[in-house]
Sequence to fold (195 residues):
Amino acid sequence: MSNTFPAASGHRHNRYLLMRHGHSQANQQGLIIGSPERGLAGFGLSAIGREQLEELLADWCWATPGRVLHSDFRRTTETAERIARHFGLWLETEPRLRERHFGAFEGEGDDRYAEVWARDADDPAHRHAGVEAVVDVAARMAGLVDELEQRHAGETILLVSHGDPLQILLTALEGRELSRHRERAPLAPASITVL
Fold:
């Protein structure tokens, strides 16, 4: 697969709010939690994350979403639940929004991300130590946006996901080299990026 995706051209049919989950227990503990085996049931929001969402909702300055899709990991589900409850919306679970799988680095300290990202910069198709390749993350994330564009029009759709997948998606949609996804400023917990 190519190191780039074609840049999005023309006008999108929908507005997208890309949201990273609130500060999580994995963030608090400094752990890499990217496997469904651990991330679906554990490592939800931290107290800091719950406070972030209260502040975000009190000061909401974006378009009101009409639809909320989220990764099925606990931290993203808890984030999406709070937003959906605030706006009176139904939740839609979407596994394509899951965290990037970090293979053998699962459960290790988050200082190990740097090793993965250095390899990403050399080869976005690498699968060293069972890590999910950047090109695969880009394909599943951009594929979801393409599908939503075909199925809906004129909606504001909130996508609640994780830092790495969202940075990779933004890089892909800009048509930039996927090996450069870490050149973007990191997305903070509970941050929203308008697409």
Residues 16 and 157 are 5 Å apart (CA to CA). Strands lie at 15-20, 67-70, 91-93, 156-161, 192-194. The first helix runs from residue 25 to 29. The chain has a mean pLDDT of 95.
